[in-house]
Specification:
With 326 residues, the chain is an all-alpha fold. 79% of the residues lie in helices and 0% in strands. The chain contains 14 helices and no strands. The longest helix has 35 residues, at 50-84. It starts with a helix and ends with a helix.
């Protein structure tokens, strides 16, 4: 039977394989030289060799960022599906992707810098706007979903208008970011992603047994001493912060927050005591695997968002057929 530590071990093995054999694989002697050079760099300030730079400055940040972003998106998806009692909900329901898209479009078209900062603020402001609209409309699940859909459409239209009026080079830069990519990963991006994962999921992990109760009706939750509106709002804030920070450094990477929670439920059930951690680990593994596929399937560095869609959409269809017994 699959255990959580099996997934964690698979993540470690895949990460090591990517470091060892990603791009050009290194011989045993070359790896000995790299390890010695890295050790001397940190202990004796020796200058890094070209191979060491490839491992430390290119491959390692990309691996770490893939693990962090994948974990955050998948964990956000399982929380959203639990609190809305809807298996078709994902983190981008709150307008996070469209808000980030508008922020990036403005950054590339007008400011030409601070892309990650404007992407984060666009995403977080969009999610706060959805929450405010939902509060005005009565704090119901249906009003939140409709608010997210409407605002996402509006912000996407604004971003599309910006793409239409800018010069082709800037429009292409916007499109590449929207496809989601880890190709320019840095340790700064990893730090931002780690902060997002920590701020979002430490509270959610501590409250996971309470969040389980949101899968019941609001009346049942109240009878068990849980304020469903307050707890749901807290969950949405945590998910918004985590997803906004991840999207700001990786672009829009879809399907992970929708598909991976379903896969995790097949093995671990619907109880968040086990499901949340397993979803985090499965999301990390899936995005790292998708990034490997994106790098190797063509001679070009294909945006990982394309790979997640190509892998995720058919798999989700298979899940639908499986659950309906087709």
């Amino acid at each position: 039977m699959l255990k959580t530590y099996h997934i964690a071990l698979a993540c470690v093995i895949l990460a090591v394989v990517v470091l060892l054999f990603g791009g050009e694989s290194l011989s045993f002697e070359e790896w000995k030289e790299v390890c010695l050079n890295v050790k001397n760099h940190f202990l004796h300030n020796e200058e890094l060799s070209s191979l060491s730079i490839i491992i430390l400055e290119i491959r390692l940040p990309r691996v770490i960022l893939a693990l962090l972003v994948g974990a955050s998106l998948s964990g956000s998806g399982v929380v959203m599906q639990t609190i809305f009692r809807n298996p078709l909900v994902d983190p981008f329901l709150l307008g996070i992707s469209s808000g980030a898209m508008l922020g990036v479009a403005m950054a590339i078209a007008v400011v030409e810098s601070n892309i990650a900062i404007l992407a984060f603020f666009g995403a977080i402001l969009a999610s706060l706007a959805v929450l405010a609209m939902n509060r005005v409309l009565g704090n119901s699940v249906l009003s939140l979903v409709l608010s997210g859909v409407v605002l996402s459409a509006f912000l996407s239209a604004l971003a599309g208008a910006i793409k239409f009026f800018v010069i082709p080079q800037k429009a292409q830069a916007i499109v590449v970011w929207l496809l989601g990519s880890l190709s320019l990963s840095s340790y700064k991006d990893c730090l931002i992603a780690f902060i997002g994962l920590s701020l979002g999921f430490i509270p959610l992990f501590l409250l996971r047994w309470r969040i389980n109760l949101l899968s019941l009706s609001d009346a049942q939750s109240l009878s068990l001493g849980i304020n469903p509106v307050l707890l749901r709002s807290l969950c949405l804030v945590c998910v918004s912060v985590a997803s906004a920070l991840e999207v700001s450094v990786s672009g829009t990477i879809g399907w992970i927050g929708l598909v991976i929670p379903h896969v995790a439920r097949l093995f671990f059930g619907a109880n968040l005591q086990k499901l949340l951690l397993s979803s985090l680990l499965m999301g990390a593994f899936f995005l790292l695997l998708a990034d490997v596929v994106a790098k190797t399937i063509t001679p070009y560095d294909l945006p990982v968002g394309i790979a997640t869609s190509v892998l995720g959409a058919p798999f989700f269809l298979w899940l639908l057929f499986r659950t309906r017994g087709v």
